[in-house]
Write a structure and sequence with these properties.
- By secondary structure, the protein is α/β, with parallel strands linked by helices.
- The chain contains eleven helices and 18 strands.
- It folds into two domains: 193 residues, 3-Layer(aba) Sandwich (Rossmann fold), CATH 3.40.50.150; 94 residues, Rossmann fold (3-Layer(aba) Sandwich).
Length: 395
Amino acid sequence: MNEYYKKTDGQCKLCGNHVEPVISLPALPPTDIMFDRPTYIPSIDQDLCLCHTCGHVQLSSFIIPEALYSKNYYLRTSQGIGSQKTNFEFLNFIDMVSGDQKFKNIIEVGCNDCYLLEQMRDRAENLIGIDPILRGHEDEYSDSQLTVIGDYIENIKLGGYPHSLVISSHVLEHIEEPRKMLEDLLEPMDENSLFIFQFPGFDTLLQDHRFDQVFNIHLHYFSLFPFQTLLYNLGCEVLEWQVDPHYFGTLTVAFRKNQSHVLQPGLPPITRDRILKSFGIFLGEMQDLSNTINSYPDEKKFCYGAGLQFPALAYHLHNDFSSFECILDDDLAKNGMFFPNYSIPIKHPSTIGDLKTLFKDAVVLISAANFSKPILNRLIPLNPKRIILPYNTLI
């Protein structure tokens, strides 16, 4: 295909049955990558596919991990409001499920910069963090309690770890073979071990008509029904689950080994008709948003919010944003950066002058939909001529 993407074999990665394309997304652009200069990366003809047997949803192709997890991959746990919020909510869920329980080991798959593990030092004797982005930097993060493994979980064979807490936040959707990964993690663990995984939930995506959240780095789109069925088939029971509607509809599931349990009813399975109906509403919303933007041809225009999925929003709007001045973002680390295939720069507000003066006759589009509430609160005192919301609902 090319150096960035790989095509799947057309089989459901949860149950092994055939998947059927439901939505075609030609030339879907890369996301979650930034560069310090305008840079081109190939897009890919993509399909969103459904397994009619278990209801799992996955892409027809995915970005190769080695191409993503480079120095240009922006998402680091201690950077960004969204990542920190996710970890705060994740810790609250862990506390709710485990109480004051102390573990022999805490193992985090996808530990990023060990931000989450650092918050849990008093919860276990040993901490183990696994993440390929730390390859070559293991000694910088490891100490007598914390061991860092800079590799992909697929390449690691864990030994016996009794009474462990195994956690993973926003990793499983990237894994090519999630069933095999879970099998390998479960095999050395005992029934006293607890697993807590979180990932973007497809049920919420459908409910909110947010197909800008379908992008190449997420091979899988998990919903509760097929994931719960997978765990049942792997000899596990679901203990608790919850949905965070404010951040990618994050679905968090706690489970453990239990061969004697029965499958509990969850949310209804995903269907082709349900996907197509939601996608149709989404396309209508994108057309309305595009018409609104185009109704201000002569005004100075700004984006506010350099969300990592900005290229996906631009893709569905069929807009290269060349008529906009810049993308403003309050994260100073993004200043001067560019999304691949777009020449519009990202700028910190402090670098462009007095915003109240600049916005007096300007139109501002909130371009990070998942943070529309705090951005709107930031914009209202600045009194732009117009504020354009990306969706009718605030998130």
